[in-house]
Every structure is written in structure tokens, then in C-alpha cells.
Amino acid sequence: MFDSVFVQISVILCVAVVGGALAQVLRQPLIVAFIVVGILLGPSVAGMVDPSSEIELFAKLGIALLLFIVGLKLDLHVIRTVGPVALVSGLGQVLFTSVVGYLIALALGMSHVSALYVAVALTFSSTIIIVKLLSDKREVDSLHGRIAIGFLIVQDIVVVLVMIGLTAFGQPASGDTSLGGEALMIALKGAAMLLTVALLMRYVLPALLHRLAHSSELLMLFAVAWAVLGAAVGDWLGFSKEVGAFLAGISIASTPYREQVAARLVGLRDFLLLFFFIELGALLDLSMVGAQIGPAAVFSLFVLIGNPIIVMIIMGAMGYRKRTGFLAGLTVAQISEFSLILAALGLSLGHLDEETVSLITLVGLVTISVSAYMILYSHALYRRLAPWLSIFERRTPFRELDEPVDAIRDVDILLIGLGRYGATMASSLRAQGCRLLAVDFDPDAVAGHVRDGYRVHYGDAADPEFLASLPLAKTRWIVSTVRDRDINTTLLRDLRDRHFQGRIAMAAATRQDAERLQAEGVHLVLLPYSDAAERAAQRLLESSNPMTDARGTTP
After folding, report:
1. I need a labelling partner for 283 at 20 to 30 A (CA). Which of 44, 341, 374, 386 fits?
2. Exposure on the CB side of residue 36, measured as CA atoms within 13 A
3. Do residues 150 and 134 make contact, with C-beta atoms less than 8 angstroms apart?
């Protein structure tokens, strides 16, 4: 419709702003809003915007930066830590979904080939969307976030193998290379890629980044170039762009510059990802989905309910808490953009008709939209469903056990959150002789502070079951350095439900949040951006004086 690509992109951006603002007012996820904008502007509705090579390029750059930043936040230690559960959960979910999905498709009257494609399409979850949602919720570093990313990467590897197999099956006489030979070649390429990354991490990248870091602009340019190059190499070798960009991020995750690089690239990542979601919506052909509403509803319910259940069963059997399994399981409650690519591949090979492609498309739209809400409101969902989830947890969830409560002596301060602010406060409190017990949901932070001699428990303060395991009756102060208002409100309610008799201090991100917390009865409200952590620690000690009983807010 538009002769100028510049005008086309300007229209996309303006409508996306309006759609995003409306979604914000209605408290809806931006991802769904942008997909809807793509549908409205695309050929299926208004026909104002056609997917173009420029939009596709922006989308691919956004995908590369997203996975690159995820790789920056993961190191080899994390991969080793969650590797077993990620592998078992990922492969177990793939096997369960493909087998049961295939049987459902046959029951709905599909042919064996169509049923196989639909079953495989239901198997894959969207790494891009899930990572974006986890990043927005700041849960990438949590245990369930790392496990989820782990089995999403396992799924990506399975996607590559499936694509290779289907292509070879569709064109059996196109060359002399057999399917086994093609798989062996991919394995050799993968080993070579991993070896190259390891050598660069060891001998090249640390010194190179140290030299480039003298100019922050040059460091950022290198980071973008490295992310895109990794994606391109991964694609060239026969792997997905996501895997290549992810490995590029891992390759510099052990350097001291990863936090600076990640922080500077977030804005660019979010801008470019807008085009991915717009493109995803514009590519959906809704003209043929009317006849597929019934089957799409069946498959959507299976993905939204069945996939999380199998993950919870596997993780529960492996010794994880029901909450960890539930939150990780929600991340597989949708099908992926890869599923749409798979459907397009089946159509091009003559294996599928357009009706089956429309069915997969409709299931994708429904599950992506609904699962986004499920993940955004995962904690509220868990609170409602927790009483019925105990069947997915062993009597002793040994993977997440800590020091028994009975072994803990009286606690002066129970500190929740060991980020920069919380870690500095913990150091100051311990230096002044406080009997301190800390809690954090980042396994690396927990392990690091344990090595430094702190008493630290792994866990999430928003988990009522975990809160019940803490020595509340032996604690004088509970201090939350988490600046999320919803988490603090939930924590405060749970403490009241358990009749906590000590005093409570909580951090707030804004003055308005501080006033709300103070009105709800918090004894001391901390404003980290206005008050140094050392000063906050001193105020806690001063407020611990029995003569001091006034509630206050840090200046």
C-alpha cells in the first residue's frame, strides 16, 4: 500500500504506540498488543502493511540481540547446574506433547502426515516470547527462569533436527547425502562451533574486550556486531539464529563487561523486537480459520494445560518444589514461531494443505496470547492453585532443601534479596555483629554468599510455602530489599496471615510506593536511590533500640 518503506515503518511505529498505550491502560501485556497491531495492519484486516524484507531484517536483529543478552546472563556454571533438569524436562515434554498431540489429531480425523506435523508443531515453545516475558518480570536469573531457558534451548536443538529430517524426507532423491550423514554433519559442525567459542573465551575475547572498553561506544558496537555475527554463523552452520546468538552471549558472559553491555543493549533490543511481534501478527492468515475453531480449541487447551502438567510431573519427580515446577511449566503453555515456520515448510514440501496451516496458525495466536497472561500473572495463579498442586511435589523436595529451621538460632534480621543493594546492606549488618539470615532466588548469589560465610537460604519471598519454612518466630526484623510493590504487598499479607510479631522494613522504588507501604503498617520504608545501603543498615540498628517505636521513611 505504501510506496516508501520509511512511511510504512512510521505508520507501524505510530499505531504500535497507540496500541501499546491502550494495552497499558487496560493492564494487558504489550506482546499481545503488538501482535494484534500486526494483524490489524496486515493483509488479513486492513492491508495497510505487508511484511517486507526491511521489517523482517529488524525482527531478526531483535531476535539476535534478545538471545545474545540472555547468553550474557548465563555462564557455564549455570548451564552445568540446570543442565540435567533442562534436558530431562525438555525431552520429556517434547515426547509427551508429540505423542499425545498425534493421537488427538488422529481422533479428529486428520491423516497420519497432517497429524504428525500438528503434533510436532504443538511441541515447540517460543524462546523469544518467553525470554522477553521473563526479562520484563526480572525472573531470568531465578531458578525456574534458568530451568525454563534451559529446556527452551533443548527445544531449539530439537527444532533444528526436525527441520533437517523433514527436508530430507521431502526431498529424498535430491542428493547423495543420507539422513544419517546429514545428522552426522550437523553434529560435527556443532562440536566445531562449541570448540571455537571455548577457544575464543579462553584466549581472545577477554583481552579484546579489555582493549575495546576504553571507548563505551566502541564496546557497544562490538557487542551488536558479535551478536549478529554469532546468529549468522549459527544459521550458516545449519543451526538456528537463536542458538548462534545465544552462544555469542555466553562467550563474553564471564568477562567483567557483561553487565554494562547488557544494560546498554536493552533499549535497542526492545525497539527491534517490536518488529518481530508486528511481523508475526501480519503473517497470520485469518481468512481460513473459521472452519478450524473447534479443533483449534481442543489443541489450544491441550497446549495450555497439558504441557505445564508434564513439566510439573517431571520436575516434581526430580525433587523440585511444586512452585518451581509450576512457574517453569507455564513457559511451555504456547506454541512457537517455529511452529508456523514448520507449517510453512510442510506446505512447501506438499505434506500439508492450507487448512492445516491455518489450524496451526490459529492455535499459535490463541496459545501465545493466553500464555502471556498466564506468565505475567503466574504468582497470582499459583496462589489460587497451590492447594491442588501438592500431587506434583515429593514429600521431601530435596533439590531445594536448605538448613533445617530447627538448627537456626535467633535471628536479628532476616534479609530478603541479595542484589547490589541487599548485598551491601548484608555486609554492613554483619560487620556490626548482627545475627543475619538472608534469602534470595538467584542460585549463584546464594552460593557466592554461602562461600563468604553468610547464612543464606534459596527461595522466593512470594512463595507462601517457602515463607512458612523460615524461622519467623525467632526473627526480630524482616527486611525486604526487593523494590517490587506487588511482591512486597504479597509478603506483607502472608506475614500477617502467619501472625509475625517482629518488625518489618521494605524497600520502595518511588515515593508513592513508600507512602503506600507506610500506610499498610510497614515500620521502616527504605528508598535505595535516596539512601545509601550503609545508612539504611545503620538506621535499622538505630530503630532496633527498644526506645524507638516510631514508624518512618528514609529521607
Report:
1. 374
2. 15
3. no
pLDDT single digits (tens) 271-327: 888 887 787 777 666 666 666 788 889 999 999 999 999 999 998 888 888 888 898
Tens of pLDDT along 352-363?
777 888 788 788
Separation of alpha carbons 545 and 22, rounded Å: 49
What string of DSSP letters covers 334-397? Answer: S--HHHHHHHHHHHHTTSS-HHHHHHHHHHHHHHHHHHHHHHHTHHHHHHHHGGG-GGGS-SS-
Give the C-alpha separation, 2 to 54, whole Å. 13
Per-residue pLDDT at 169? 55
Spatial contact of 156 and 243, defined as CB atoms under 8 Å apart: yes
**120 has pLDDT over 60:** yes
- CA distance linking residue 456 with residue 440, whole number of Å: 8
Choose among 181, 184, 196, 258: nearest CA to 223. Answer: 258
Residue 489 and residue 433 in contact, taking contact as beta carbons nearer than 8 Å: no
Cβ-count burial of 215 within 10 angstroms (0-12 exposed, 13-18 middle, 19+ buried)?
exposed
Find the distance separating the first CA and the last CA of the chain, reported in whole Å: 57
Return the pLDDT at 448: 82
Query: Cα separation of 219 and 86, whole Å?
Result: 33
Q: Which residue type occupies 518? A: Q
C-alpha cell at 371: 500464555
79, 198 in Cβ contact below 8 A? no
d(CA 213, CA 222): 10
Contact 284, 357 (CB under 8 A): no
In 3D space, the residue among 387, 422, 431, 414 whose CA is nearest the CA of residue 533 turns out to be: 422
* Reported pTM: 0.65
Contact indicator for 483, 460 with CB cutoff of 8 Å: no
Q: Which three cell numbers stand for residue 290?
A: 473459521
3-class DSSP assignment, residue 416: strand
pLDDT confidence of residue 531: 62
Backbone angles phi and psi of 75, in degrees to 5: -120, 180
| Backbone φ and ψ of 314, nearest 5° | -65, -45
Q: Which helix (H) or strand (E) holds 526?
A: strand 524-526
Q: Do 37 and 16 meet the contact criterion of CB atoms below 8 Å apart?
A: yes
Instruction: Please state, in angstroms and rounded to a whole number, the distance separating the CA atoms of residues 307 and 314.
Output: 11
What three-state secondary structure class fits 46?
coil
Give the Cα separation of 171 and 12 in Å (integer): 39
Q: Among all chains, which residue has been given the C-alpha cell 492491508? A: 47
Q: Are strands 456-458 and 475-480 parallel, antiparallel or unpaired?
A: unpaired
Q: Which pLDDT tens digit goes with each residue over 67-101? A: 788 777 665 555 566 667 878 888 888 889 999 99
